Amino acid sequence: MTGKHTWAIPEGYIPEGSTGPEPEMRSHESLCVLNTADEEATVEITVYFPDREPVGPYEKTVPAERTAHFRFDEFDDPEAIPEGEPFASVIESDLPIVCQHTRLDSRQAENALLSTIAYPGE
Amino acid sequence: MTGKHTWAIPEGYIPEGSTGPEPEMRSHESLCVLNTADEEATVEITVYFPDREPVGPYEKTVPAERTAHFRFDEFDDPEAIPEGEPFASVIESDLPIVCQHTRLDSRQAENALLSTIAYPGE
Amino acid sequence: MTGKHTWAIPEGYIPEGSTGPEPEMRSHESLCVLNTADEEATVEITVYFPDREPVGPYEKTVPAERTAHFRFDEFDDPEAIPEGEPFASVIESDLPIVCQHTRLDSRQAENALLSTIAYPGE
Amino acid sequence: MTGKHTWAIPEGYIPEGSTGPEPEMRSHESLCVLNTADEEATVEITVYFPDREPVGPYEKTVPAERTAHFRFDEFDDPEAIPEGEPFASVIESDLPIVCQHTRLDSRQAENALLSTIAYPGE
């Protein structure tokens, strides 16, 4: 299995507020990363906004032969991503990985889900 | 990060009516664009219908290193896109971009979401 | 804009029963096709099942510079697709097209949506 | 129609609990496979976790010219996939296939759906 070093997700949005039991049902926006290599991957995420400079990189690691599901609402270094504002992200990894974008929206009584494989860059 | 100059979204639909607080919860169909280049991208969107000539281009800009989330229900020049009618769109940009398609359907009490990376043309 | 001649959708399912006003809210599974060429495209759809021979081709046309959103629950020639049974589809076109798969599930009080760009074959 | 021999799905999650009539409405996570070849495909699925060794391969077959929709919550050999824990999967086939990932989440009164074509590896 060979992935890519660079991925993009143009859609991003952390809803304001949520319903349901915490934390499983809290509204969240996730980046799911799969690293099938036999070495740890170092992943750098840059977040883009509509009207200000990009923020990042947010540095993450994914161990060898592991998956990691990162929640954008838990990003805090260099800074938290604001709720209620659109954003986009670029994911760069030193090893080939595969990325998928998923959102659980629980602002109302019932949840909604979306998911798509991210865009694999060169 | 390198994107593509041309993208397509065969599915498009602006539901008639909506529920929930405006404008966050209004039903909408969005085109999310990411421009990671260090120059402003000029984006032209052509909208296709089942039974009449295409309309456009709708001209948009996305500043350098920014994301823009365009709502099809807010397109008005050269003309508004009618509610309750299927459409498709082709997005052409002078710089490489990445496009994602998302719909929030709030016609009933609870929302539904869909999203997919658009189709990257040559 | 250049599409592909062949597309595949491994997931297909027409739910049994539905809620809400007809026909907008009836559960349905759709194939959205975009033909940006200046000639009519002839599209042949073959439907695959878990435990019997494929059925088709279902023949459709998409006029020049038009989009068509076909509902699998309205396919009837050579035969209707049964409700409540998984299926998959292959779409072949004489001209390059772009295909997207969308489902509206309205079996319960609130709708659910899914969508993905189909898989572009060689 | 030509597919690929290797596919990846970084997102996986079997929700704990469910609502609605069994088994149609039970929460599930599915892998939809299409084999358009005129021979049976042998498919091996490896499941990755956040913090332990991958499990597999889970061996499946898809007959010639058939589709198969496998539910991850029914995988049991070499072992069941735990509920409430993220996972990812890699699908390898001796024949070219096409893979799609779908989840029906019925933990609350109303369902949510997500779907995406899986990532086609080399």
Describe how the helices and strands are arranged:
The structure is a homotetramer of 122-residue chains.
Chain A: E1 4-9, E2 28-35, E3 41-48, E4 55-62, E5 66-71, E6 88-105, E7 112-117, E8 119-120
Task: Please provide a written account of the structure.
Chain A has one domain (about 5-120): TM1070-like (Hypothetical Protein Tm1070, Chain: A, Sandwich), CATH 2.60.290. Chain A contains no helices and eight strands. Chain A has about 120 residues and is mostly beta strands. Chain A is globular and about 40 Å long. In chain A, β6 and β7 (about 110-115) form a beta hairpin. Chain A is about 0% helix and about 50% strand. The first copy, chain A, has strands at about 5-10, 30-35, 40-50, 55-60, 65-70, 90-105, 110-115, 120. In chain A, strands 1, 2, 3, 4, 5, 6, 7 and 8 form an eight-stranded antiparallel beta sheet that branches. Chains in contact: A-B, A-C, A-D, B-C, B-D, C-D. The interface of A and B includes residues 12, 48, 86, 88 and 105 of A. Chains A, B, C, D: Pfam families: ASRT. Chains A, B, C, D: This is Sensory rhodopsin transducer. Chains A, B, C, D: InterPro entries: ASRT, TM1070-like_sf.
